[in-house]
Amino acid sequence: MNSFHFPQSRGDVEALDAEDPLAHCRAAFALPEGVTYLVGHSLGPATQGALMALQRAADDGWVRDRVGAWNSANWIGLAEQVGAKLARLIGAGEREVLVCDSVSVNLYKLAASAQPLAAARRLVVEEDEFPTDQYILEGLSSMTGVELVRAAPGQGIAELKGGVLVKSLVNYRTGEVADVAADEAAAQAEGGLIVWDLSHATGVLDVRLKAWGARLAAGCTYKYLNGGPGAPAFVFVDEALAPELASPLPGWMGHARPFDFKSAYQPKEGAARFAAGTPPILSLAALDGALDIFQGLNMADVQQKARRLSQMCLVLAEKAGLKISCPIEADRRGGHISVRHCEGYAVVRAMHDWGIEADFRAPDTIRFGLSPLFLSYAEVWDAMQELTEILETRSWDKACYREKAVVT
Ligand SMILES: *Cc1c(COP(=O)(O)O)cnc(C)c1O
Questions:
Q1: Ligand 1 pocket residue status of 132, Cβ below 6 Å
Q2: Angstrom distance (rounded) from CA 18 to CA 40
Q3: Does ligand 1 lie within 6 Å of residue 102's CB atom?
Q4: Angle at Cα 90 formed by Cα 58 and Cα 84, nearest 5°?
Q5: Which residues of the chain have pLDDT under 50?
Q6: Which atom of ligand 1 is nearest to the CA of 200?
Q7: Which residues contact 24 (CB under 8 A, 6 or more apart)?
Q8: Which residue puts its alpha carbon closest to atom 12 of ligand 1?
């Protein structure tokens, strides 16, 4: 952040945009004019690349080659191929990443397969962890009889004691970033294993799994990777550990030769052993196309812009009177900031009517996602001026804005 002079005026933000190495990426997104999309941390917007890849898979595969496309378009190898493409973005080797299932299912598969390798029969999750991570460990605990320990926020490593911990790299609510290298060193010293949840980190932070010593991870592709609604998630497995891991859901797609139709199970090499059933080809194709935008980008540039944008957003949100509930230092955060307002939901709904999309997490958290590939400094600056006006004029104070939708 050293060379970053905090902008004082709209002229300053225009100067930041003029020298932004990622400014060209915006044109690749199918985003309407007049919308400031601060929810890329929840559902990344469509890119032209994703839409074209989806159309191509439908036309050249499903329509033209039909079942033959499993071979002609290599649909059978697509989950591994897209995994290899994604690997570069998280500092992993090509055979260490497989795209499959949802984050929830992948957490289950990884934690279950890690447990027999850990020094202690013990599952650990922090109380402020994303709910699905907690539910999945609860389910695994009741299925296997392995004790589940609920650690206080930030105490997961202290409670690990040689067991298996599931932990987010970026906390979904506060945006706080964990120190993977330090946590891995502590876990390994006592024979424990960590399954990292990279959902809010992938595609926005400069993640270096191998360099940091991470061994197991799962993550999301429909957030900062813009893979599309419900796009399949991924698993990362350190290649040295992979041969020792047995998936608790050893479906035929994880078999070394599924079309031999043998009764005896022989898992694939590497992360691919975590495949279970037939992959969702159309979604995978869209994700494949979405990842093209990252080709040639330096993830350090992506992370730096996310942090500059989020720092600017945070300072302006605080000036507008919102209470900050994420770390103040940019390098302790992921790509979003969170603030609090007792009528947060109504504020988010009012912002929507002003063309600014943000999201709300009960009971009172508003999140602003600062996706660096399609947002400009000027756009975020303007959105925060409008938010200031919404708060000053209490434009959010209407009954219609308080009626909650199912998805917030
Ligand atoms: C978004 C998110 C998920 C998503 O889980 P799915 O099973 O893919 O729906 C999981 N964990 C965290 C921390 C998330 O932010």
A1: yes
A2: 22
A3: yes
A4: 40
A5: 1-2
A6: 15
A7: none
A8: 199
The pLDDT value given to residue 3: 60
Q: Calculate ∠ Cα 255-280-71, nearest 5°.
A: 65
The encoded tokens of residue 306 equal 């996310």
DSSP SS3 for 117 = helix
Nearest alpha-carbon partner for 375 in 307, 299, 321, 295:
307
Count CA within 13 A, CB hemisphere, residue 226: 26
Characterize the bridge pairing of strands 164-168 and 323-324. Answer: unpaired
pLDDT score recorded for residue 5:
83
Long-range contacts, stretch 19-24, CB < 8 angstroms, 24+ apart: 20/305, 20/376, 20/377, 21/298, 21/301, 21/305, 22/297, 22/301, 22/302, 22/305, 22/372, 22/373, 23/376
For residue 290, the SS3 value is helix
Mutate which of 129, 220, 287, 367 for ligand 1? The one with the most ligand atoms within 8 Å of its CB, which is 220
- Look at residue 4 in the predicted model and tell me its pLDDT: 80
Strand partners, 217: 196, 236
Q: What is the pLDDT of residue 408?
A: 87
Instruction: Give 150-161 pLDDT, tens digit per residue.
Output: 999 999 999 999
What is the per-residue pLDDT for 50?
A: 98
CA-closest residue to ligand 1 atom 10: 103
Q: What is the pLDDT of residues 124-163, one digit of tens each?
A: 999 999 999 999 999 999 999 999 999 999 999 999 999 9
pLDDT reported for residue 347? 97
- What single letter denotes the amino acid at residue 342? C
**What is the reported pLDDT for 382?**
98
* Ligand 1 mutation target, pool 128, 132, 224, most atoms within 8 A of CB: 132
H/E segment holding residue 305: helix 299-319
Residue 174 CB partners (closer than 8 Å, separation 6+)? 128, 325, 326, 327, 338
Q: How far is the CA of 105 from the centre of ligand 1 (A)?
A: 10
What is the number of alpha carbons within 13 Å of residue 108 lying toward its C-beta? 20
